[in-house]
User: Which sequence fits this backbone?
């Protein structure tokens, strides 16, 4: 889209920062990067002002505290549901396209085959319900210019996430017990950022129909499998990772056991699915890359168990 004007909300977060980086490589892109401090999406007047003058809005602003949402569902929904509705209304008023980032948590997590984009939604926790409210707002208010991209198991160079935590803990613990009964698709935030921009550009050319897309890596693994691959790719001994089960980590919010998403929707936009999760991880952890520098092969004292479900895995006695 020649000379397009882009607004990135949540621009200080893991994915938001990568989106700003990707757009900086588009010579003709005019980018407004709005952090949470700069734009409160729950303020409809502020949202209308912020959206005005932009052609595309990439929304990564979100309430991400999964456990906190269980006791504060109204607050989570105000951000993840009402805030998205404010953005959608503002886009409807100005004609801007909205690409909204959602989550696998809108599904029940009890499937045995990858969830297609049109699979029935049935969130099992308050966070998932709040994100589903945002999706519904996009579909209702922007039937022709609204895009929902569901992602899961994001990691990257910015902010706390599972891969960076594994690299840090590798220098602190000789062994880690990691959950092996939750299945998903580890997805590099930088790769997803590139795909979101490509989708917006395809929409601008009129070749990407609105609706739901699944922005996760191809393939599947468990948190245990991901942790072993992080160690292997970082020159560390993967046998330092040991499998454990989710029942060791009782949490306020129930987690889906199966977060594998299907990717057939990309063909509608003339785009291929994202690469396999191992290929993405290899690129992210390449020597001199954004993540490998945090790893260290030294082996310090006692083990710990890891619950990956909230981004920064809490530890219990090993």
Assistant:
């Amino acid at each position: 889209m020649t000379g397009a004007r882009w607004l990135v909300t949540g621009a200080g977060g893991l994915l938001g920062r990568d989106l700003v980086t990707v757009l900086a490589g588009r010579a003709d892109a005019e980018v407004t990067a709005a952090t949470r401090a700069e734009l409160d999406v729950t303020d409809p007047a502020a949202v209308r002002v912020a959206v005005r003058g932009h052609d595309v809005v990439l929304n990564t602003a979100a309430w991400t505290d999964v456990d906190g949402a269980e006791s504060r569902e109204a607050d989570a929904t105000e951000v993840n549901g009402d805030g998205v509705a404010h953005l959608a209304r503002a886009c409807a008023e100005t004609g801007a396209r909205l690409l909204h980032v959602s989550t696998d948590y809108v599904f029940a997590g009890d499937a045995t085959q990858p969830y297609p984009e049109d699979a029935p939604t049935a969130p099992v926790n308050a966070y998932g319900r709040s994100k589903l409210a945002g999706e519904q707002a996009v579909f209702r208010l922007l039937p022709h210019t609204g895009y929902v991209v569901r992602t899961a198991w994001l990691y990257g160079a910015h902010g706390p996430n599972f891969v960076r935590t594994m690299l840090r803990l590798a220098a602190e613990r000789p062994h880690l017990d990691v959950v092996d009964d939750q299945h998903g698709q580890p997805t590099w935030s930088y790769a997803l950022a590139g795909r979101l921009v490509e989708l917006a550009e395809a929409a601008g050319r009129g070749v990407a129909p609105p609706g739901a897309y699944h922005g996760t890596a191809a393939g599947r693994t468990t948190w245990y499998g991901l942790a072993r691959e992080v160690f292997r790719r970082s020159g560390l001994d993967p046998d330092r990772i040991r499998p454990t089960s989710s029942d060791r980590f009782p949490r306020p919010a129930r987690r889906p056991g199966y977060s594998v998403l299907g990717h057939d929707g990309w063909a509608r936009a003339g785009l291929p699915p994202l690469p396999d999760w191992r290929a993405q991880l290899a690129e992210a952890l390449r020597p001199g890359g954004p993540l490998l520098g945090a790893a260290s092969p030294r082996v310090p004292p006692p083990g710990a168990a890891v619950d990956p479900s909230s981004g920064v895995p809490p530890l219990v006695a090993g």
Notes: The longest helix spans residues 73-94. The two ends are 53 Å apart (CA to CA). The chain has two domains: 5-155+185-214, 162-183+220-256+276-317. Residues 40 and 87 are 11 Å apart (CA to CA).
